[in-house]
Amino acid sequence: MDSFAENSKKSFHIRSNSLPSKPHPVVDEVDEHLCRLKASEATSSSSSLCQKLDGLQDLHDCIDKLLLLPLTHRALVDNKSVDDLLEGSLKILDVCALAKDVLLQMKESVHELELALRRRRGDDTAIDVQKYLNSRKMIKKAIHKVLKGIERSSSQKSDESSEVVSLLKEAEAVTLNNMESLLSFIAGPKLPSKISRWSLVSKLMQPKRVANKEDGSYGNEVEMVDASLYSITSHKSDFLVQVEDVKNSLRKLESCIHDLEEDLESLYRRLIKNRVSFLNILNN
Q: In whole angstroms, what separates CA 197 from the centre of its chain?
């Protein structure tokens, strides 16, 4: 009997140790936010981008809570991936800062062009239109350079056994993917030639495409302004006829930029807070 009881205790002990430990609620919460953001990656309208930025804010709020947990501290101590995580957090901050600068530059350009269109002084207005388009070219160039850097970093893979470190790396990848969507939205399509410019103009300026927003075939706010202005500079439309449409498109773009700026600023503050928390862990 004693032998049976002793064997039963050992058997129970082995079974109890083999049971999976329950993840910390914050870990589950981070994972849920990651799943939601991944599910929305395919959409790229201005409203969906704002929703993604809101989702990233929620994700990084949870990351901040995760960084306060003792299990995170233990996972990061002497971990070979710490340098990669530090570099990744800095990269995200740099990309976010670029997006903020680009939106500010666009807002200023839109405001200047709106003033020029109100004045409607012939050649002066044409100069302001070209000035806006030149600014867009510079923005596109800067964004495409950054996007290439994001593509190179995302192609690098690494195996990581720590669940916490894996979550932090996944959060970094998801954040960069969504920032890439935002930058691509701001940059708009590439326009390497006059032919492709007019192709974009004719595609976006069709009345049915502009009016029908339910089938997803309309251009976004950035594309619509670009198309309208390229149409004017290519002499494919009467400026006086198009001016009201351009002004309406500019107002929509300005509103879009305002919403994105607010969400991006809130996300930027959270990213800074997380990096500070991360550095505090490593310095303690």
A: 26
| Token code pair at residue 163 | 């669940």
pLDDT in tens, 57-112: 999 999 999 999 988 888 888 777 888 889 999 999 999 999 999 999 999 999 99
Pick the closest to residue 164 from 17, 15, 39, 281 (CA basis).
281
φ and ψ of 6, to 5 deg: -65, -40
Tell me the C-alpha distance between 226 and 200, whole Å. 9
Task: State the chain's maximal CA–CA distance in angstroms.
Answer: 105
Question: The whole model's pTM is what?
Answer: 0.78
The first and second tokens of residue 43, run together, are 């959409």
Closest CA to 129 of 228, 60, 37: 228
User: Of 236, 242, 240, which Cα lies nearest the Cα of 224?
Assistant: 242
Share of the chain above pLDDT 70, in %: 71
Is the Cβ–Cβ distance between 139 and 106 less than 8 Å?
yes
Residues of the chain with pLDDT under 50: 1, 4-5, 8-20, 192-218
Q: Distance (Å, rounded) from C-alpha 226 to C-alpha 284?
A: 51
